[in-house]
Design brief:
Helix content is about 20%, strand content about 40%. It is of the alpha+beta class. The strands form two sheets. Strands 1, 3, 4, 6 and 8 form a five-stranded antiparallel β-sheet that branches. The longest helix is centred in the N-terminal third of the chain and has 30 residues.
């Protein structure tokens, strides 16, 4: 029969493998959800507006201390929008400031995303000038 130490080692190995599989599945989902544009840049409704959102890092620990920088690039007709262009933000997991403005002359806006202690795949949606873009963040 197995000794108590072998049982514990076997359980730890099983939990490790299960955790690894969970992270890989979550990462795969995040890749599929990343940059899901709801309005195509060449669509007449978009008036030539493009919104591109990114996050660094993309994987965070599921606790209330982890943060990531969210970058939002807004262009109209392939030209950066003016400073102080309004960008609204929302997330389904964790927290983020509800609004930000472009600054620095490059059509860029930034925000800070804060994790929560609930693991999962969160989505951050950035919306500006009638166009939105979505990116995923993994909390594990």
């Amino acid at each position: 029969m197995w000794s108590e130490k072998r049982k514990q080692a076997s359980i730890r190995l099983f939990v490790y493998r299960l955790s690894l599989v969970s992270v890989l599945i979550a990462f795969g989902l995040a890749i599929m959800l990343t940059s899901c544009r709801s309005t195509r840049p060449d669509d007449d409704v978009a008036n030539g507006v493009t919104v591109n959102v990114s996050i660094e890092p993309m994987v965070l620990k599921a606790d209330t201390t982890e943060t990531a920088v969210v970058w939002i690039e807004v262009k109209q007709n392939q030209v950066p929008v003016p400073d102080s262009t309004f960008v609204s933000l929302v997330t389904n997991l964790g927290s983020i400031s509800e609004t930000t403005l472009t600054e620095g002359g490059g059509g860029l806006a930034t925000a800070i995303y804060k994790s929560t202690d609930e693991p999962g795949v969160g989505r951050i949606i950035a919306h500006s000038l009638g166009v939105k873009d979505t990116i995923a963040v993994i909390l594990n």
